[in-house]
Amino acid sequence: MTVTTNIEPVKPKSALARLLAVVLAMASRPSGLVGLVLVAFHIVLAIVSPAIAPYDFKELSAQLILNSPSAEHWFGTDNLGRDVFTRTMLGGRQAILVTTISTVLAITWGGLLGVLLGLVGGRLDEFLMRLVDAFLSLPWILVLLLIVVMIGFTPGVLILTLGFFYGIPVIRMARAATHDVVALDFVTAARARGESRFTIVRKELLPNVLDVLLVEGAMRWSWMLLAFSSLSFLGFGVTPPTPDWGLMISDARSFMSFAPWAALAPVVALSSLIIGINLSADALAKAIGIDRAQQAPV
Amino acid sequence: MVRLIVRRLALGILTIVLVSGIIFVGVEALPGDTCTAYLGRAAQGTRLDNCRRDFGLERPALTRYAVWALGAVHGDFGVSLKRKTPISEIVGIRFRNTVILGVTASLVGVPLAILLGIFAALWRDRPPDLWVSTAAICAMTIPEFVTSTVLILIFSIWLGWLPGIVTTPPDAPLFEFLSDIILPIIALALVMTAHILRMVRTSVIDVMASDYVQMAQLKGVPYWRIVFRHVLPNALLPTINLVALTIAWLLGGTVVIEVVFNYPGLGRLMIQAIFFRDLAMVQAIALILATLYVGLNLFADLLTLVANPRLRTMKT
After folding, report:
1. How far apart (Å, rounded) are the C-alpha atoms in residues A13 and A16?
2. Would you tell me which of A267, A281, B257, B277 could form a disulfide with A218, CB atoms 3.0–4.6 Å apart?
3. Prediction ipTM score
4. What is the DSSP string of A214-236?
5. Of B142, B255, B274, the CB nearest to A271
6. Is the Cβ of A72 closer than 8 Å to some Cβ of chain B?
7. Which of A191-205, B138-152, B215-229, B235-249 has the lowest average pLDDT?
């Protein structure tokens, strides 16, 4: 008797279709939907805000100092008579731009190096992981501040610094994820076929580690926003008069007892973006089946 | 067992040595040195040369590293440029203050996190869990300066219950800090609770799904007995490490909290040192904080080793 196997080859879905499916799965939970909407809102706002802002963000006015919210100035005015609504609308642009680019940077270099180390192993791997451990035992804020103060805090430096520093924990994540894959049969098969290391990384490992890296990227993004706004809160980030949430909160704290709106507006804006990113990251992790709470904070 | 402990200790020391190297090389590699920072615009010609000679900067980097590292082992971190006093004198009391903040926040945060984490795990994916988990995400990722600002706004400006900034001098006795320190503790404990809660939740959920718990359920062991006898001991052990890691990592967060509340701790000292480019001070604080981090991790590892017999025979 002959057994006929009749297995249809599984058609690989296009990247776009897969992305759409993931986004739909994310939006199917209420928390994921809220997260996606918040993130989309902030991104759209960051793009269109210069065109729709009602006032000039650096326009001073002696008559309007610390006015409470009114029909003309929805969120009131600050200690220099500037419109808080306008400044809050524009206050996320630099933060979002810088952190988005540095997230991509961090995921790319950290991910590639991590996958390579996971594949190669050996002395080099051991030494570099020690170095990674040592690096992570330094307080993040110290490292960032030191670099930024010594080289200068322009957006370019901030992008490179954040991208470099937050790439380090990504190495560890990517390496661990690679270890899970590297022992599987299809990698052994690829080795047996005599594929080069480069091909194994590109064709076998990266596609399998990509999910982990995506979730990692979403998480990194929110940590970077935290870091970026902390830096500018401490006075080492965005230079005035450019509006920035961290800087606005820092400025508004001194007159918070009589003008709480000037502090509350950026507080709500920054918090809503960060919560949005995290809800999305959680939903993304659930949609592609990774439990993100298992990961250490760094 | 002894070999394992020795190995772990050696690894910890190696990490600290590497860290000291990174700190030294990092400060070295940045443009400008102690003297250019000290002299500012006047940093040229003979004045620069004289200053460099006074501070011994013309020696090779390796010699300077050796001198610095040897001094640090003995608790001598050199002299602060800004304050013209030995760093060890300034740092000691600030270190105590930061430790007070960290310890009290952990005393509040860790038990609360364990309780909430277990609670969330047992009611997994039902409304109690969803509320706790969502609140945790918010507390975890909103920057410390934002929560601190909101806390000050509510408790010291609107309600007037607690002071919004610390006015006690750095070397005041412990009890004088009490009323000042409550808001900073809340701010720090919030973040800490959120992080640890999530780890505890995951760990409990994992154990609840294991075979032996299912077996106990099938045997008809009462639910709460399963939870307390079978699940919790096994679920909480692995979190010891993560708790230590989190507490150590939150040192970065205390810096911001200390600045917001004007709290005289190590973090605020560090920001001031960076601001004035007091590099010797920065190096010292970086090394102390990193050692604290490594030490905490080491302590957690040893504690796990003692508490969990299974690890003792494991090969590493």
Report:
1. 8
2. A281
3. 0.76
4. HHHHHHHHHHHHHHHHHHHHTTS
5. B142
6. no
7. B235-249
State how far Cα B24 lies from the chain centre: 21
CA–CA min distance A113, chain B (Å)? 20
Radius of gyration of chain B (CA): 24
Cross-strand bridge partners of residue B86: B79
Count Cβ atoms within 10 A of the Cβ of residue B223 and give its class: 0-12 exposed, 13-18 middle, 19 or more buried.
exposed
Q: Residue A125's Cα: distance from chain center in Å?
A: 27
Q: Closest CB to A249: pick one of B149, B198, B201.
A: B149
Reported confidence tier of residue A7, pLDDT bands at 50, 70, 90: low
> Using the beta-carbon criterion (under 8 Å), do B245 and A298 form an inter-chain contact?
yes
Looking at residue A104, its pLDDT comes to 93
Cα–Cα distance list, B168 to A254, B178, B256, B292 (Å): 19, 10, 18, 25
Q: Is A222 on the interface with B (CB under 8 A)?
A: yes
- Decide if A258 touches B, using CB distance below 8 A: no
Which amino acid, B256?
V
Q: Which two tokens stand for residue A46?
A: 């960051």
Interval A254-289: pLDDT, tens: 887 777 888 888 888 998 998 899 888 888 888 887
Rounded Cα distance between B140 and B198, Å, is 10
Find out whether the peptide bond into A241 is cis, omega within 30 degrees of 0. yes
Pair of tokens at residue A197: 């290391």
Query: Which stretch, A232-236, B157-161, B298-302, has highest mean pLDDT?
Result: A232-236
Cβ separation of B252 and A140 shorter than 8 Å?
Answer: yes
Lowest model confidence (mean pLDDT) among A94-108, A109-123, B215-229, B296-310: B296-310
pLDDT by residue (tens digit) across A195-243? 888 888 888 888 888 888 888 888 889 888 988 888 888 888 777 778 8
Nearest CA in chain B to A257: B157
State the pTM of this model: 0.81
Cα–Cα distance for residue pair B114/B106, rounded to 1 Å: 12
pLDDT of residue B44: 66
Question: DSSP class of residue A83?
Answer: B
Q: How far off is chain A from B220, nearest CA to CA, in Å? A: 30
